[in-house]
Fold this sequence. Notes:
The complex is a heterotrimer.
Chain A (H helix, E strand, L loop, with lengths): L1 H22 L32 E5 L4 E4 L2 H10 L5 E7 L6 E3 L4 E4 L11 E4 L2 H11 L3 E4 H4 L21 H6 L17
Antiparallel strand pairs in A: 1-2, 1-3, 3-4, 5-6, 5-7
Chain B lengths: L5 H23 L7 H31 L2 H7 L4 H34 L5 H28 L3 H17 L1 H9 L4 H14 L1 H12 L11 H8 L1 H32 L1
Helix pairs in contact in B: 1-2, 1-4, 2-4, 2-5, 2-6, 4-5, 4-11, 5-9, 5-11, 6-7
Chain C lengths: L1 H26 L6 H8 L5 E4 L2 E4 L2 E3 L4 E4 L3 E5 L6 E3 L5 E3 L2 E4 L6 E5 L5 E3 L2 E4 L2 E6 L5 E3 L2 E4 L17 E4 L5 E3 L2 E3 L3 E6 L5 E3 L2 E3 L3 E6 L5 E3 L2 E3 L3 E9 L2 E3 L2 E3 L8 E9 L2 E3 L2 E3 L3 E6 L5 E3 L2 E3 L3 E6 L5 E3 L2 E3 L3 E6 L5 E3 L2 E2 L17 E3 L2 H8 L10 H9 L8 E3 L18 H23 L3
Parallel strand pairs in C: 1-4, 2-5, 3-6, 4-7, 5-8, 6-9, 7-10, 8-11, 9-12, 10-13, 11-14, 12-15, 13-16, 14-17, 15-18, 16-19, 17-20, 18-21, 19-22, 20-23, 21-24, 22-25, 23-26, 24-27, 25-28, 26-29, 27-30, 28-31, 29-32, 30-33, 31-34, 32-35, 33-36, 34-37, 35-38
Antiparallel strand pairs in C: 39-40
Amino acid sequence: MNSTKLMKLSVTACLLFLMVMLAGCGGKEYKAVAINEDTAKCAVCNMQVKDDAYATQLVTENGKVYLFDDIGCMHEWEATNPNEEIGASFVRDYNDNEWIKYEDAYYAYDASYRSPMAYGIYSFKDKESADAFVKSQDKGVVMTSAELASHSWQQNTDMMGGMDMSGHDESAHSEMDGDMTMDDASSDAHSH
Amino acid sequence: MGFRNPWAYSFMALFIVFSIILLLINARNAVEGYSGVTSAMLNLILYLVPLMSLLLGSFSLTAEKEEGSWRLLSAYPLGTLSFIVGKYAGLTLVLWVIMFVGYGVSGMLGAVFGGGFAISDFVLFIAFSMGLSFLFVAIAMMIGTFARNRWQALTISVSIWFFAVIGWSSLLVAILGMVPYLYVKPALIFLTFLNPAELVRLFVIVKLGGGSILGPEYYDWVHWIGRADGTLWFILICTLWAAVAAGIAYIIWERGRHRE
Amino acid sequence: MIKRRGWLAACLLLLGVFVWIAPCAAYASLDKGTIQQLIDEAKPGDTVTIAPGEYRGAITIDKSVTLVGEPGTVIVNDAAQPAVTITADGVSVSGITVEQRSMEESTAIELVASNTMLSNLDIHTHAFGIRLRKSNRNEIADNSIQWLGEMSGQEVKMSAKRNGIDLYDSHDNVISGNRISSMNDGIYQESSHRNQVIGNRIDHSRYGIHCMYTEGTIVRGNAGNYNVTGAMVMGVTDAIVEDNSFTKQSENVNSQGLLLFDVHTSTIANNRVEGNRIGFYVEQSSKNDIRNNSIERNFVGIQFLESEGNELQANDFIANVINAEATDSPDNRLTANFWDNFSGIDADGNGRSDISYAINPFFQQLTHQTPAFQLFFQSPGMQFLETMMQSDRSSWTVDIEPLMMPAGQQAMAGKHNSYTFWVSLCLLLISTIIIYNTGVKRT
């Protein structure tokens, strides 16, 4: 007799538990999560995601969070998972690491900017800071998120001119960009 | 008490054979830490120890009912609580002694003939088995109170064993597949605390240094168990678990006593 | 002969100079410019020997001189620029201890030159160790690079550290026999081709060896342990990774021995990966030749994701918790590997099993969708469930003819453990006493 009573009790408890869980599944307010460098891994390239300005993330509609070490990886993920319902995606301001919505950010790009996966795109919270950055570098273009959609997403892997495997023109290789200054953006991102 | 029960001796023989099998697995590739060898041993222990604890424990209680010795005891001014606690402690001790003999024999053989266990793993496995039996005897006490006779106890024991050890993952994968994504992990953690087999298994994996395989989702938990006071907390949780289970057994047994 | 004599004379002369200077070094530490002065005064081709003592950085070497530190020569640099900057080709620096104290984005040694030889340097740094920019055909040998340690006890995040040796757009360099400890990436190469990384030892760093967008890289005979990942090879073609040993990369939740991502037509041979979280992790990589590796005691031996056209041959998979996982990886050719959890049948006696070894993708698929289920890693219940999930076997990755015996040598670890003996003895004694007192005595 007692066993049936207990069974009923546990079944009700389970149902209650489920109901509470389902009830919590209400309004959708997406928020960027903090990055723990001990566990964060890029969902595309498997590299550690550092808690720096290059980190990006997206949240799917069912609440799963994907982290990326470079905005290019996030683009890659979206391209290879077209069926996933994306709730929101976030990038960071280059200057103060504040999380901003992908759509609201401005982007600076130049092939010579260094980023973890060499996509060379930095994000900014307003147009002024993006313009100021490009000006300080003397190279690069500023884009909105809409313009970024038609971006080529070319990685600067130093293979554009150097695809010849023969390796006979080594000097051409090393002098290709011709700029030897160390104080440009290229000295910014080595530590990925 | 327990050692006048022939069941105890047959289980002891079984466990000696079993621990020698563990020794042979280990001798094939003696290593420390979490590896294919220790994982295989872990799973073998996970099959046998809970089943042994459930059967021995529940049979011991149903035997009291069947043989009428409980009715006799009820006549004495013996509290139900001390009866339950005494039974629990006694059964746990019997199981621990069975394991001590088994591990003692295989440990000696290994140390003498080579290919023996590394001391850290050996101690961990003994602790693992002790913890497992401690928790499953608590469940056995509940089964023993519910079951009317030995056959019922056998059926319930085997089904609980199957559910907790073998069917657990399949069941949870099926059920949690219907739950919204964000609730899968909390639900999984909650349910893991309900299943002593999983609880103890995960604790040992972390202590063997294999915690990182559980992935980023459980980073905080693994970190927590890995700390020195993690062991204390784990022992506390196990004690709590046993107390609750034994408490339920007590309440039901007490009711039965008054009804009669 | 004449040349050598001239060189000797120069040395003697310099030594004379130092005998004269050395006392100053012993009492008052030399002024900032001393080494710089010596370099400025030297002619290309000269050898400048530095007497023991502590010197202040930063210095620049802009002509092809040989700089030799006598034992006890230390250059300390508190400034944000590199302690030593080399801008001229053909420079050689050896036998110096360099301390780069500033946490600023800088480096102990900056190389913007070719045909340089850096050897026997002892570098302690809060920034990079040795940084190469557009620098080719250099030799970096037998140096030691390590994290300088925390200042005033404050804990530094791993990401605040920088790379030991960092190459960007630098080709044909030889990096050998270095020892790198507690840095971000031990040896980092980006867009740098045909470099040889040989016989280095890297530990307690993030990634031991990290190759990004390189061609024709050779990674040979290196040892990595206790890093997050032994070697991270990404966006690479035609690399050779052989005779390395990557062990005990198991602490971090993303650890592995060797990771291949977007790697093509490369050779991975004769490596030993042991005790890692994952031995080999292979994703989006094709046409690689993975052979004769020994993959032991990892939590997962090898993981294939979206990789095809690879050859996996004569590898030994022993005592891994799970030997192999593979998803979305058709058309890889797995032959004659040894899998210790598989018992084959060899009717024709050619040492290879007549039945194949198939890799069940179920668990990897499950945890890919819901990482929380990783909790079931190799639980008895999951093994049971996997045996039930046998549908669609045709798409599984399969070793057609697994080996019956390991391909390589097996070291049997037959340890006698005296502690275990005594613990066992105690257990037996205790149980005998209990049985006697409770069972036998009363009857």
